[in-house]
Amino acid sequence: MSVPLQYPIHGRRSSELALSIESAIRDGHVAPGVTLPPVRGLAASLHVSPATVAAAYRRLAARGLVTGQGRRGTRVTPRPPLRMPTPAPVAAHLRNLADGNPDAALLPHLQPALRACAREPRLYGTERNHAG
User: Fold this and answer.
1) Per-residue pLDDT tens for 71-86?
2) Domain annotation for the chain: domains and CATH numbers
């Protein structure tokens, strides 16, 4: 049984993906015992990083909604999920550090550093690699 065909999983961040899957579970669209899509497959269909999907699955596992079974996949647990408080919304003037994603605007530009790197390969024992 394929979850994306029954219920559309959506989101760009791990928190959005986890909330989408959690809503599907709570609303009964995804039944206990159903296997969620593989991390790489879901990441490819949503055009996100596999690490993003894996983080969403970890969030759901920490809440008791799913359990990872190695190569057999991630399944919705048959027991009721743990009740955890929903995080408070982050005010517009603050940065949300809880989702673990960096703000791309704050990352340094790498082009100057890459231009400064040597373009020819350096091998052990060559004169350029000897200190001093």
Assistant:
1) 888 999 987 655 667 7
2) 3-76 (1.10.10.10)
